[in-house]
Amino acid sequence: MKRAFSFLPFILFFCLLLFFPRQSLLGAKTGLMLWFFTLLPSMLPFLILSSLFVHLEVLEKLFGRGASFWRRAFGLSPQGTYALFMGIFCGYPMGAKVTADLYRGQRITRQEADYLLTFSCHPGPSFLSAYLCVEILGREDVTGWTYLVIYLSSFLCSLMFRPSRRRQSVPETPAVSAPFRENLKKETSASLSLGEALDASILNAFLSITKLGGYMILFSVLQSFLKTWLPAVPCIRYPVLGLMEITTGLSALSQSRLPFSLLYILTVSFTSFGGLCVAAQTKSMLADTDLSLIPYLKGKLCCLTITLALTFFLVEVVKVIV
């Protein structure tokens, strides 16, 4: 009986696709266009290069010299710092993807992977500047403040989770599924040539980007249904849309008649959280490991709270954003 109920949401979603084809088609087109014109060209090269770095074991050379600084500043190893930087510069869900790759390859421990998931997943700088500030808010002048709020919130979030990580001093061996364990044996038995590593990296990158596209299309369809049926009450409609899927949710917010001060607080906060679609994408990046999504969700809720406080302070207290 419990298993039957677990399939109920999928059956309901299937019925919606059948009986509401117009909304389904519109949502699918929106999601596909976002994936093809935005996510694919912006993330695929980084996915390939990131996987190549992991395969060729060059992370120690890139970040090894500043190991003591990374440990003091972020509580991370050089390898973990690489995951953090990729999450910052490449955007959702690159931080989780690199964290999972490093964990599968036994470059970081389970404790460090869980810790990274709490604060290494961010919106990318290009998304913040071009999409959020220019296209959604129409205010290029708030880009610097937006960077400050988003990344300061993430750093403060890391400070809140860092003490619990320090208490876990005993390293653990990463647990991966049988297929990845076999691949790991093959890779460690003999060093991969550059060509072999590049081939493996391209396949890995296309698998990941295809997963992300599938989730984006499904959530865009769901977003299309919600936009049609949600009541035109701002306190209900916009939080639901913003927390469901970040891109289309921000677009819906931009079409509202909310004052700019409230619009800025809501859009930046929803961007910091990432939405349920990004959470599902993050979960897919953790496949074939024993890593849980719980640390990510805890970190995102913490980051959302801090972002709300910081944006409210900037807008309503010091009034540097008007």
UniProtKB/TrEMBL annotation:
Q: The organism sits in which domain of life? A: Bacteria
Q: Does the keyword Membrane apply?
A: yes
- Residues crossing the lipid bilayer are 34-54, 74-94, 144-161, 202-222, 260-280, 301-321
The UniProt keywords, alphabetically, are: Membrane, Transmembrane, Transmembrane helix
Q: What is this protein called?
A: Sporulation protein
Report the source organism: Blautia hansenii
